[in-house]
Each structure stands twice: as structure tokens, then as C-alpha cells.
């Protein structure tokens, strides 16, 4: 699939902000045999006094910006063209859960994609006994790691209600789990904790999802949004797979990857500091437009 993407993120401040420094991660990745960033651009208004590009620990391109002068709003716009390849359906070569620790111990790599970075707690994902209890029903089932991952994905999709008004970006997984409501970030965080509690390495994927309007309805411009799903290590042979608990589907050609991390804190599209007070209004609009090939 070939897509044209556009993203608009805006911040409107009650009181003009100054000394604002931000890190922006919104451009899609180029991934071998998965997706290719053909072209991409990033525009920030007001024009930054300083702007530089760097690659973070997980090998994601990021942009650092500094705006010194007072400004009432910050506008970030991204445009990109991306080619996404369909993935072949493979057999389940993952081990049963009891054998996974042996395969982890045989993995000596500590490169960014190593499963060892995704097995313990992380900044936003502490140990959560309630979620561990929820996951424990699959611990002694004799299922393979891949089967367990699919089962937990389906269970979260069944038990949780998608409700964008129930949570915020700062809602903890424990709170979202208690509510059984939330958005893709909440579904993803809960699933990662559940998998890690069983000893299965799991990480956070940030990206875009093409949405298809109901039959007979026009597609609304800007109606798409940034999305999140889960990356699971299923052993040395099977490697990494990606599942979307919000929709209970494997990540496919409608999923466009921006960043991989341990949790949202590693992949937040915009993070930073500024000098101001009062509140702010945020705007986000995304268009994912498929192109004819």
C-alpha cells in the first residue's frame, strides 16, 4: 500500500510561552521488508531558533527544536509518503511459555531490538499485581507464546470499552485497567504489562492507522489519529510480531510505524519543556490517504 500522510499538532497557550525546547518524533520509519519512507518533511511555526536532528537509542530519527521568544501557539506539521508492504502469514514457531526463559538466556544481544530491553518495568509501566493476576490464567495452559499473545489481545478487546473521554495521556495502566475503558494507549499499556508479567518481552509501537468510514459515509479529513499497538517477542525462531488490542487484529498494511519503545514515554510524538503558566489547548489532526498504484 502507498500512503500520503499529513499530521497537524497544535498547542495554544493561555499565556505566551518562551524558552520552549521540544523533541519531535512524527516521521514514519523505513523498515526492511516492512515499510519505506519515500519522502517526508517537518515544519514548525514559529520558526525555531535552533533545530537539529538526531537518532535516539532505539534508532528512531528525532528533531530537537528551541523557540526562545514568547509565542502564543506552537504549530507542528508533518507530510510524508510511505510504502507499506504486506507481511506473509507464517506458522507458529514460538515455544511454549515454559521454554521461553531458555531462549531469552541464549540471546546475548543488547542492541536496540534485543528482547532484554522489553522484559522488565519501564518508566510508565511498573509492576501491577491486578494486571498480573488478569494475565495469570494463561500461565499454565500449555499454549505457545504466540497463542498466549493472541489470547490476551482478544481478551482485552473483549473486556475493555474504547472511550476517548475516560482517560488522558497521563492515566496510569492501573487506573485504565480498573475502568476497563480508554484509548489505544491504555489498551497497549495494559497488554504490555500483562505479557511482561508472564515473562514475555513486549514493547510499545507508535504510528498511524488508516481508518475506513462506514458504508455510504464520506471519509472525514483529519479524522484519523496517531495510534498505538503492541510488539511481542515470540522466541528466537518466530522473532517479533505486532498485535493491535484496540481492534484485535495483527498489525498489517493499514498500520504505519513511527517508533518502537518500552512504553509511551519512549515514543511520545512531542515532549519537552517551556516557560509559561495557565492551561493550554491542543489540536491533533491526521490524514492517512491511500494512493492508487
Can you put this structure into words, describing what you see?
There is one protein chain. This protein is an alpha+beta fold and 293 residues long. It folds into 2 domains: 107 residues, Immunoglobulin-like (Sandwich); 169 residues, C8orf32 fold (Roll), CATH 3.10.620.30. The chain is 18% helix and 39% strand. Strands 1, 2, 3, 4, 5, 13 and 14 form a 7-stranded antiparallel β-sheet that branches. A hairpin with a 4-residue loop joins strand 10 and strand 11. The termini are close together. The model has no long low-confidence stretch (mean pLDDT 92). InterPro entries: Bac_transglu_N, Papain-like_cys_pep_sf, Transglutaminase-like. This is Transglutaminase-like putative cysteine protease. Keywords: Hydrolase, Protease. It holds the Pfam family Bact_transglu_N.
List the SSEs and their pairings:
Blueprint: E1 2-24, E2 35-45, E3 50-55, E4 61-67, E5 71-84, H1 100-105, H2 129-135, H3 145-159, E6 161-162, H4 173-179, E7 181-182, H5 184-197, E8 202-209, E9 226-233, E10 240-244, E11 249-250, E12 255-261, H6 264-267, E13 270-275, E14 280-291
Parallel strand pairs: 6-7
Antiparallel strand pairs: 1-4, 1-5, 1-13, 1-14, 2-5, 3-4, 8-9, 8-12, 9-10, 10-11
Protein name: Transglutaminase-like putative cysteine protease
GO molecular function, one term: peptidase activity
Domain Transglutaminase-like: 176-247
Amino acid at each position: 500500500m502507498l500512503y500520503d500522510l499529513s499530521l497537524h499538532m497544535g498547542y495554544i497557550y493561555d499565556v505566551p510561552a518562551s524558552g520552549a525546547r521540544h523533541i519531535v518524533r512524527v516521521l514514519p520509519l523505513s523498515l526492511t521488508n516492512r515499510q519505506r519512507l519515500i519522502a517526508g518533511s517537518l515544519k514548525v511555526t514559529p520558526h525555531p531558533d535552533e533545530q537539529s536532528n538526531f537518532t535516539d537509542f532505539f534508532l528512531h530519527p528525532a528533531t530537537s527544536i528551541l523557540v526562545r521568544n514568547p509565542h502564543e501557539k506552537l504549530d507542528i506539521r508533518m507530510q510524508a509518503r510511505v510504502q507499506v508492504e504486506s507481511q506473509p502469514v507464517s506458522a507458529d514457531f514460538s515455544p511454549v511459555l515454559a521454554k521461553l526463559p531458555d531462549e531469552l538466556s541464549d540471546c546475548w544481544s543488547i542492541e536496540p531490538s534485543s528482547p532484554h530491553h522489553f522484559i522488565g518495568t519501564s518508566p510508565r509501566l511498573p509492576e501491577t499485581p491486578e494486571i498480573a493476576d488478569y494475565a495469570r490464567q494463561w500461565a499454565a495452559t500449555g499454549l505457545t507464546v504466540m497463542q498466549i499473545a493472541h489470547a490476551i489481545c482478544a481478551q482485552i478487546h473483549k473486556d475493555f470499552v474504547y472511550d476517548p473521554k475516560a482517560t488522558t495521556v497521563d492515566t496510569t495502566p492501573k487506573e485504565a485497567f480498573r475502568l476497563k475503558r480508554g484509548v489505544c494507549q491504555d489498551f497497549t499499556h495494559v497488554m504490555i504489562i500483562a505479557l511482561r508479567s508472564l515473562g514475555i518481552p513486549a514493547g510499545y509501537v507508535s504510528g498511524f492507522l488508516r481508518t475506513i468510514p462506514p458504508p455510504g459515509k464520506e471519509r472525514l479529513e483529519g479524522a484519523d489519529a496517531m495510534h498505538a499497538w503492541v510488539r511481542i517477542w515470540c522466541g528466537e525462531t518466530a522473532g517479533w510480531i505486532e498485535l493491535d488490542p484496540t481492534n484485535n487484529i495483527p498489525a498489517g498494511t493499514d498500520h504505519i510505524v513511527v517508533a518502537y519503545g518500552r512504553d509511551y514515554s519512549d515514543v511520545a510524538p512531542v515532549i519537552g519543556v517551556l516557560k509559561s503558566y495557565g492551561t493550554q489547548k491542543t489540536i491533533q489532526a491526521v490524514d492517512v490517504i491511500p494512493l492508487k498504484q
